[in-house]
Amino acid sequence: MRVLLEMRPALDGHAGIPQETRLLFNGLRTLQGINVEGLIQSSGNVLAKGLPTVEGRWHAPLTRDKQINRLSRVVVSLQQKISNAHLAAMGMAMRRMLGGRESLGRFEATHFRDFIWRMLFARTLPYENFDAVTCADFRIARVPWTAMHRCALLTKKFGYALYPRLDTSDYDVLIVETPYPAIVSPSTTLVVRYHDAIPLLMPHTISDKVYHQASHYQALRNNVRRGGFFSCVSDATRSDLLSIFPQAEARSTTIHNMVSHHYFPDESSPARVPEVIATRRNDRIAQRGAAMDESLRGSGAQLEFLLIVSTIEPRKNHTTLLAAWEQLRTERFPNLKLVVVGMLGWGNKAIVKKFIPWMERGELFVLADVPSPELRLLYKHARATVCPSFGEGFDFSGVEAMRSGGAVVASEITVHREIYGDAAEYFSPYSIADAARAIAAVIAPERNERRLELVAKGAVTSSRYLPDRILPQWQEFLRNIRAPGVAAKNGERT
């Protein structure tokens, strides 16, 4: 079975969907009977031409130097804007109306293994996987992913959303990480790795609301209507999908995310925690170093802290955690610090403004670009990792904390109950008092037995998400959707 896996998210970030994309690519390549290649596509840049998939009848084959020049230009175009995405969308709309298709070029990694490794895989995979992923084959979609969305939204204004046709005829399956703004070849089965329906069910929590909501809905609707299959990251996500499109029930299943190999319990010393905090401060936030350094000096094994690992944006609910932490400091735990790990997302200014007074006192620390081994250390030695989000599709941080030997306190949203089970202490994300209660129930000295209980349960619960438990589910799923007659029976490919 030839499978093409969308790699766009791997270019755009570290954790979450980018991490899952890398793990899935590497994992699927270990399965017998499945040949996986990667689809390189930019979110916003028009890419240079790759190599032709078939040599043209009227053109001589490209010499080696010309091949390398083309591939080199692809690398450059991924990082430097060379064309207007809006104009690209208009061009696609015209080609679509004339019955044209968007072809895929080839990318040979032979001379570009450094690029493939560092840009696509290094932020998640260990070096041991270098040869396996850099010797893989890749295809190139020149048109930007956002331009595909804009093409549909532009034509929708005239009555009907026209999505570009992507020539995927060389592949049995195309796996994409979000609702995909294109139509695949009739011989290809589209699989949407569906992470969450937040743009539709919680649109007040997303950035660029008008565009994000419209593009998600229209692409998802098109994927459903044309017979796409859905591999949802949780039962909660699948339930949300079916509440919107019940007709997708027979074509949807749940396959949970995989946890990275980086997270496991080790015998690391808590004495390294202050060093990690001091060296990984987020340099995008003005922080007065003197007070911070003084608060960390000599703390060693005595440093007591709560940990949250999440993009800093309103949906992640940092403000409730902050208020609960302030209450705990005032009432019972005056030396308890708060460590925040994550990128600055949309709407972060109001949140960061509340952080700053505590940061200046050396009691709250905002970190970024924390390597996985150091993050594992923080998970291990935090009094608790808190997952306070209002909405999630899966939420890696709690699972990673459990794998690392840490205790988890989480908001009682449906997906947390599903993923974490009885291995977490829960609270209402809307109640500061309840959050403080739940945290205290885990970190208080007299409740150490409860904390140890959660750590033990977390080791068992998080093992459900190891690759050797998840990959067989993918193998069965892919085999079933390619069974004779399945795609034709379920699809509406027009």
Description:
44% of the residues lie in helices and 12% in strands. The chain is of the alpha/beta class. The chain has two domains: 2-258 and 468-490, Rossmann fold (3-Layer(aba) Sandwich); 270-465, Rossmann fold, CATH 3.40.50. Helix 13 (318-331) packs across helix 18 (432-443). The longest helix is centred in the middle third of the chain and has 17 residues, at 209-225. The two termini are 24 Å apart. The model is unreliable at 488-494 (pLDDT under 50).
At a glance:
The chain has about 500 residues and is of the alpha/beta class.
Portion of residues in beta strands equals 5-15%
Number of domains: 2
In the CATH hierarchy, what is the class of the largest domain? Alpha Beta
Class by alpha and beta content: alpha/beta
CATH topology of the largest domain: Rossmann fold
User: How is the biggest beta sheet arranged?
Assistant: 8 strands, mixed
Radius of gyration: 24 Å
- The CATH architecture of the largest domain would be 3-Layer(aba) Sandwich
Query: Roughly what percent helix?
Result: 40-55%
Helix count equals 21
Based on Cα principal axes, name the global outline: globular
How far apart, in Å, are the first and last alpha carbons? 24 Å
Instruction: Give me the side-by-side strand order of the main sheet.
Output: 3-4-2-1-5-6-7-8
Mean pLDDT: 91
* Total strand segments: 14
pLDDT < 50 stretches: 488-494
Compile the SSE list and pairings.
Elements: E1 2-6, H1 8-12, H2 17-28, E2 35-40, H3 64-79, H4 85-97, E3 104-107, H5 113-121, H6 130-134, E4 138-141, H7 145-156, E5 173-176, E6 189-194, H8 198-201, H9 209-225, E7 229-232, H10 235-244, E8 252-254, H11 273-279, H12 289-296, E9 305-309, H13 318-331, E10 337-341, H14 349-360, E11 364-367, H15 372-381, E12 384-387, H16 396-403, E13 408-411, H17 414-420, E14 425-427, H18 432-443, H19 448-462, H20 467-481, H21 486-490
Parallel strand pairs: 1-2, 1-5, 2-4, 5-6, 6-7, 7-8, 9-10, 9-12, 10-11, 12-13, 13-14
Antiparallel strand pairs: 3-4
